[in-house]
Amino acid sequence: MGLQYSSAMDIQALKHFTAFEQLPASALERLADEGQVKTFSARDALFHHGDNSHDALYLLAGEVQARYPDGRKKNLTPDDPNAHYPIGNLNPRPFDLVAVSRTVEVFMIDREAQDRILSLASLSEQDAQSNNEAMVVQETEVDPQWLFRMLQAPPFASMPADKLDQFMAAIEQIEVQAGDIIIRQGEPGDYYYLIQKGSALVERTQGTVSFPIATLQADSAFGEEALLKENAVRNASVRMLEDGSLVRLHAEAFKQLLEPAFLHAIPGSELPTLLKNGEYQLVDVRLQPEFARHHLKGSINLPLFQLRARMSELPQGKPLLLLCDSGVQSRVAAFILKEKGFDTAVLEGGLSQLQPDKNPNGQTAETPEE
């Protein structure tokens, strides 16, 4: 019959394996989501000697045989103590692995995804057990289950595993009340915020008039714009609408830990090829008059100040390449969109680095593919 994909993984069955037996339910669920259950028939090869693979393989049911290059053979069932660990977990694979019983069922998961989940679970557990001295101005403990869930979501999933412990040590939680002003328009940027509980209103003041921009709910983030721009001040205020709690990260830690993970920059030299292949949807985040004066063919205009309110207009099935004159506004836009799960990149250095074409009309002035 050959290889078949089976039903979803039972998270309790994962506890049979040594690496997973102490994990909380949230981590087991994440492992089950990331991995796949596969069924093989007798005499099927699960892998061959010398194969390179990114997957860890765990035996759930049936009997397999490891066949070494020197002629040795070793059979394995789930009751064997060695089956509590991934089988042949080396690159290249040290032997052929063949199904012996009528059916064999295995759980397979990308090693890097597995290691990240294990790291997050370990760090969350340490955080839950640590006292306030292990954190920076920690007023209340960050809920480890909430934090684990957040770090699995875009864009935090891009953070390298070796930075996770630094991130855990740098964050701090603060309790807030309805009416509290968290950031104030015109003040320097100092923190990046995540809403753990509660909701907040983003509002901007022009002259004596204040008007709302967006309402932020639990798991939303804010405060990144002033941190991504050099010497920038807050361009809006954020006021809590109800009692809640926030997790914040100081500007220096934000730049060191989050900014590199969030932002993928594409050199201008690669742009003609990307445009020719249609790999990205171009999104120009400048103001409409700037866009009308000159822009890249095929780009759509969504000004940065309207991004949160209009991001539902953006296509979901294609990566977005964010554009502006210098690269600064597009970096902010990419950060905001990645928080919402969009696949984003920015044009390194912005449109100003590109050579304008020969056409004097402003409709398609910068088109490096021509």
Count of all domains: 3
- Number of strand elements: 21
Radius of gyration, taken over Cα atoms and rounded to an integer in Å: 25 Å
CATH homolog superfamily of the largest domain = Jelly Rolls
The N- to C-terminal Cα distance equals 53 Å
- Biggest sheet strand order reads 17-21-20-18-19
Shape: globular
Task: Give a verbal description of the structure.
The chain is of the alpha+beta class and 370 residues long. The chain folds into three domains: 4-110, Jelly Rolls (Sandwich), CATH 2.60.120.10; 130-258, Jelly Rolls; 263-353, Rhodanese-like domain (Oxidized Rhodanese, domain 1, 3-Layer(aba) Sandwich), CATH 3.40.250. Helices cover 25% and strands 26% of the residues. It is built from eleven helices and 21 strands. The protein has helices at 11-14, 25-34, 111-129, 144-152, 164-170, 225-228, 251-262, 271-277, 288-293, 307-310, 328-339; strands at residues 4-5, 36-41, 45-47, 55-61, 64-67, 73-76, 96-99, 103-110, 172-176, 181-183, 191-197, 200-206, 209-216, 221-222, 237-240, 244-250, 265-266, 281-284, 300-301, 320-323, 344-347. The strands form five sheets. A five-stranded parallel beta sheet has the order 17-21-20-18-19, covered by helices on one side. Strands 1-2-8-4 form a four-stranded antiparallel beta sheet. A hairpin with a 2-residue loop joins β12 and β13. The longest helix has 19 residues, at 111-129. The radius of gyration is 25 Å and the shape is globular. The N and C termini lie far apart (53 Å). The model is unreliable at 126-139 and 356-370 (pLDDT under 50).
